[in-house]
Prior knowledge:
By secondary structure, the chain is α/β, with parallel strands linked by helices. The chain has eight helices and nine strands. α1 packs across α8. The two termini are 17 Å apart. Adenosine-5'-diphosphate is lined by residues 16, 18-24, 137, 140-141, 172, 174-175.
Amino acid sequence: MKREKYLKPILIVISAPSGTGKTTVCRELLKRNPDFRLSISATTRPPRITEANGVDYFFLSNEEFMDKVRKGEFLEYEKVFGHYYGTLKSTVENYLKEGYSVLFDIDVNGALKIKEHYPDALLIFIKPPSLEELKERLKNRKTDTPEQIQERLSRLPIEYEKSKLFNVQVVNKELQETVLNLEKIIREYQRKLDYVSQ
Ligand code: ADP
Ligand code: 5GP
């Protein structure tokens, strides 16, 4: 039987309303799947207390970020909640060359731009079980003020609208269940692409 790690490397783009759990889900997927690598984005947002430079993001000043924009180093970049976030071309190209599938934790606009560059990218939209649960998760995360939480919630309509263009939508109710479900979806997609390219 073909081993999972030899399946075709693909781009797996995960978007979700802020607080749904996509960062948590991505961490689990990375822990469990040695053939996955995270595309670490660059951002001008200040680090949260739990975050480290080069692990969660590359934390840059506005000047450093704009310098990379001018040099064409981003595959895509967006302003989200008042800060810039961007995907580095070199990260994606190098991981693909090395045979890894690349996981992206990015917003819906960035996801659709990745799809323009890489039409075979698998776009996954993760939904919270309910609006109430989403608010609870944002509150319990304790990283945002009530105003910031409101700002994050205000993006929901546009996120749900754009999610219609994604390959799949998955509800993140129980974390382990979500992770297993995503692994199944990803492996099936890889097999389908493998089959088509033979
Ligand atoms: P996002 O990256 O989508 O903004 P996070 O991964 O930071 O979201 O998760 C937001 C909060 O919800 C965190 O405190 C996380 O521990 C929690 N969380 C994630 N997934 C679940 C789940 N399935 N059930 C309950 N809480 C969850
Ligand atoms: P956070 O500040 O909560 O880490 O991220 C805010 C939003 O920016 C999330 O929707 C996150 O997925 C998105 N994001 C993170 N990195 C990138 C990126 O490189 N490009 C785009 N377009 N969005 C990103």
